[in-house]
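S.,

Sequence below, as promised.
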Amino acid sequence: FPVTIRSEVIAPLIRAQPYIESCVCSEEEVDLDLSHFRPLYVRSNSLQWMQFEYAKIRYPDLKIDRGSEAWLQANPDNAFEGRVIVARSPRYNNGMFPWHEVVKKYRDRILFVGLDVEYSNFCTANGNVERMVVENYLKLAEAMKGAEMFIGNQSSPFSVAEGLKVRRILEVCET
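The prediction came back faster than expected:
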C-alpha cells in the first residue's frame, strides 16, 4: 500500500485523541523523533522502556509517565461486549503460549483481528474462530473498549490495547 493509504489506517485513532490537534501524512521533518533510540536498545529492556529512556535523555523537559496511564481514548462499542479479541502476527511468537487452551476456553467469543495470512495461520494451528475485519484502528480501539479482553503478541493491535489500558494478555516472545 502507498504510505498515504497505510497512514489512514491509524490516522483516525490519532485524530480521535483529545490532545492531538491534527494528523497528516507528510514527508517533512518531525518535531519529536523517538526512533533514534534503536542504537541504544538492549534486549533486557522493552522497546517502550528504551524509548522512554531515550526521550528522557534527548528531551529532558518532556513529561513522561512510563506508560502507567492510558494514552489512547476511544468510546466502547457495546456490540463487542463479552467478546475476546485476539491477534497474532508471524513475528514475536512464543511456542509455549497456550493458544490451544485460549481457543478451547473462548472459541465462541473470539474475534480474530489481523491480515488474511495471520488469520489463516492462526486457524490452521488452533482451530477455526470468527474473524473481525476492521477498517481502521479507531474501530479496533472501540471494539477493544467494548470487549471483555484482548489477547495477542507484540504487534500493533497489542499496542492499541496497551495504549487503552484495556484488560489484556500478551504472548511474550522468548527472545
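DSSP finds six helices and five strands in the chain.

Coffee later?
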